[in-house]
Amino acid sequence: MxxxxxxxxxxxxxxxxxxxxxxxxxxxxxxxxxxxxALLIAPMFSPALAQAPASTSAALPFxxxxxxxxxxxxIDNSQGDAxxxxxxxIGDDAVLxxxxxxxxxxxxxxxxxxxxxxxxxxKFVVNTHYHLDHxxxxxxxxxxxxxxxxxxxxxxxxxxxxxxxxxKDIKPEQKSEVESLAAPEVLYESAVExxxxxxxxxxxxxxxxxGGDSIVIVQQEKxxxxxxxxxxxRQTLPNLIDASTLPWMETLLTxxxxxxxxxxxxxxxxxxxGSSADIxxxxxxxxxxxxxxxxxxxxxxxxxxxxxAVLPQVKQKYGSWQFxxxxxxxxxxxxxxxxxxxxxxxxxxxxx
Length: 352
What we know:
Blueprint: H1 8-12, H2 35-40, E1 62-68, E2 71-76, E3 86-90, E4 95-98, H3 104-117, E5 122-126, H4 132-135, H5 138-142, E6 147-151, H6 154-157, H7 172-179, E7 186-188, E8 191-196, E9 199-206, E10 213-220, E11 223-233, H8 245-261, E12 264-270, H9 276-298, H10 303-318, H11 324-340
Parallel strand pairs: 4-5, 5-6, 6-7, 11-12
Antiparallel strand pairs: 1-2, 2-3, 3-4, 8-9, 9-10, 10-11
Helix pairs in contact: 8-9, 9-10, 9-11, 10-11
């Protein structure tokens, strides 16, 4: 996988609230504790729903991957034309979309694929976090009448924190692009349930990647699909610019325990779909990085000398992972700042 040229600044230039809902019957808070029980008693999805094969059109900026019962993952292509992964769930009377890619063209292509499968209205878009490569197509679906749902911090960060990805020399048109992004209308704090007909879709907050991350859980018989956003990168080095790696590791440990109870497909923000073993491998990367950077700091190394000491270790074990060339050095620097207490992370919204 390569990073598209227009998004390279994103990778290289960077040095007591309640649910607000539009329809109380459609949205209600739910916690992760109910998920295991729900999996055991999960309702059957409509048997009349056709299951389309994976789309392999060369014109598409993603591969459409069916996961069963009207659930689809849209996996970014090898050129990075979509910028990130997305997906959607076709319910009994509506569609829910998860993330909208890094450009409107990719979002429009996703809309076209949905319309080839169903004419049902697109009721919801869930933004898993505020980063530009996951929200830039929001307006495409808002024009279709979809309500955009996200964690409460996304509302302010989508128009402010995204500016930093273009660096200090941000161009007026880039600034305008960020400021005009379609923002979420429905905000939640810890968990919310959305319904598309008889199909319940749970959206839950977990810490680690940005401080405003959501996962989207949809059950299918006795298994489930979990859209993780950027809380999970499969065999891919992550963007740690906003990350707090210790709580992130706890989040991934929770995912692993959950997966041990029932078969689950995890859809990452970047990389192909994965299993609990892939979750464990990604957690291992964060753990290794903390250990290696911590050891270098204890030996007195800082800055470039610390990076030079840690990079060979990272390369030996994770050099084959995607985005290594873009993120390896930055990951080391970000973890050094985090362990040293000097890292800047977005401040949570304090009021609405």
